[in-house]
Amino acid sequence: MSRKTLTTEFAEKLLAIEYRTLPSAAVDMARQVVLDGLGVMVAGANEPLGVGRISIDYVRGMGGSEQASVVTGGFKTAMQNAAYVNGTLAHALDWDNTWYPLNHPTSPTLPAILAIAEHHRLPGERVIEAVAVAFEVQARVRLAATGLKTGQGFHKPGTTGIFGATAGAARLLGLSLPQTLAALGLAGSRAGSLSLNTGTMTKSSHSGHAARMGVECAVLAQMGWSASTDVFGPKGFFDTFLHGEADPGKLVEGFAAPLRMVEPGVGFKKYPSNYFTHRPIDAALALRAEHGIRGEQIDSVEVRFPPFEYVNRPAPRTGLDGKFSIQYATLVALLDGEVTIDSFTNQRRFAVDVEALLPSVKLVVDQAIPSEFDDTWAVVTVRLKDGRAPSLKMRELSGWVGHPLTREQRLKKFFAATRHALPEDAAREVLGCVERLDAQDDLLGVMSILRDARHCA
To answer: Which InterPro entries does the entry mention (predicted)?
Structure first.
C-alpha cells in the first residue's frame, strides 16, 4: 500500500470540516466575514477610478448563463464570471479584512462561495461551512509558505487565496477526496499574481482571479478533469513558487484545532487602505484631535517606521496609489480628520493643500522598529509653524487580531460602505439576513438586493 501524501492528508482534513461541529465562535465569525465582505463589494463597485465600472462592464460584455448575481450590476452571469467581478470589487478599495500571517482571507474566497451557493440554492449553513473551510485552507497554505514575503514577489490572494477559494467551492459542491485532490492540483496551475502591480487596478483583480479560478477548479474536477494529486509535494507549489522555502508540515499541524478564524482571529479594517498605513493614520488622527492641528499650521511631518518599502511612496501617482503610501495617508488624516473612500480619489490626491504639504512629509526608516506586523509601531511627529512638535507613538492597531472592532464599529463600516448604493432599509434587510445566516434557506433574497444596488461610479 502506497504511503499517504501530505496533500491527501490535507484534503482529508478540509473535507472533515462540517457545520454541525463548528464552534459557535467560528459560526459568529463567519457571519461577520460575510457581512464585511458584502459591504466592501458594494463600496468597491463605486471605486472612484473605475475599477468597479470597468469590471462590471467587462463581465456584462462576456454574457454567460444567468447563474449568479453581479453586485450592483443589475444582472446575473455564469458563476465563475460573477465570482471574478465580485472578488475584484471586494478588493477594489483595499478595505477587505486581513489576518496573520498577512493575507486577505475574504476577497478571494467569499465571492466564489456566494456564486455557487446562489446558483445551487444552498442554505446559509453550507455557506458558513464553506467559509470556515476556505479560511482554514488559505491560512494553512500561507503559514506553510514561509518564503512568501509581504509586499514582494507574488501577491497572496492569487497564490494562497486561490487554494482557499478552491477548497470552499469543493466543499459546497460535495466533491469526493479524489475530486478535491484534482481541484487543488488544478489550482496550483492557476496560481500567481505579482505584487509589482500594487497601486494599480490590477491588484484588485488578483482576488477576482482567485475567486473565479476557485469555481472553475472545483467544477472541472467535479466533471472529471484530471490534475496532479500531490500539488504540495515534490516539484509542486512550494518548490515552484518558493524554491522550497516552505514548511509543508504546517499544512496539517494543528489543522482546525482551533480554526484560525477563531484563534488568532480575523482583522477588520477601519480604513480603506493598506493595513500598514493604519497605525500612522491612527496616530495622525489622535494628534489632530488632541492638539487642534489644522493644515495651515503644519510646517512638516515625520513618520518613523520599520523598513518596509511597500508603503514608502512619497509621491503616489494616483489616489488609488495613495492607499499604499504612508506619507499620503498620514497627511490626509491630519488635513481632514478622517480617512474614507473619498480620501483616495485623484481629486483629493492632487488638491492644492495636499500638493503643497506632501513634499514636507518625511518617512524615516528606523531599523530598531520590528517589521513583524504584530510587533511593529509607528511614531508620527508634526512640526508646527509656531515651534511646537507634538509626537505620538502608536502600537495598538484597532481592528487587528487582539483588538477587534466592536459590533457598533463593524456596523458603522457596513452602513458607510453601502450608503451610496443601498437605501437604509435595504441595507438593514441584508444585515438581518446575514446575522441569521444559518437560518436562511438560500441566498436569493440577499443577492437580489445586492444585485440591484445602485452602481454610481
So the answer is: MmgE/PrpD_sf, MmgE/PrpD_sf_1, MmgE/PrpD_sf_2, MmgE_PrpD, MmgE_PrpD_C, MmgE_PrpD_N
The sign of the torsion formed by the CA atoms of 271, 127, 54, 154 equals positive
Return the pLDDT at 33.
Answer: 97
**Domain assignment present for 329:** yes
Q: How many CA atoms lie within 13 A of 114 on its CB side?
A: 39
Range of the domain at 352: 275-394
- Residue pLDDT, tens place only, 324-350: 999 999 999 999 999 998 899 999 999
Q: Do 256 and 213 sit in the same domain of this protein?
A: yes
The residue assigned the cell 507634538 is: 390
For β-strands 298-305 and 361-365, DSSP reports them as parallel
Q: Where residue 166 sits, what CATH number does that domain have?
A: 1.10.4100.10
Task: Please give the Cα distance from 50 to 260 (Å, whole number).
Answer: 34
32's grid cell: 461577520
Q: Is residue 153 part of a domain?
A: yes
Give the integer Cα–Cα distance in Å for 303 and 290. 18
Measured CA to CA in angstroms, residue 441 lies from 57, 70, 134, 168, 405 at distances of 31, 20, 21, 19, 29
d(C-alpha 33, C-alpha 25), whole Å? 12
Q: Determine the Cα–Cα distance for residues 355 and 291; give it in Å rounded to an integer.
A: 23
Q: In terms of pTM, does the model score above 0.70? A: yes
- The 8 Å CB, 24+ separation contacts for 196-203 are 197/155, 198/151, 198/155, 198/310, 198/324, 199/313, 199/316, 199/317, 199/318, 199/320, 199/321, 199/323, 199/324, 200/320, 200/321, 201/49, 201/50, 201/51, 201/54, 201/320, 203/91, 203/94, 203/155
Does one domain contain both 259 and 279?
no
* 320, 273 Cβ separation under 8 angstroms: no
Mean pLDDT across 314-322: 95
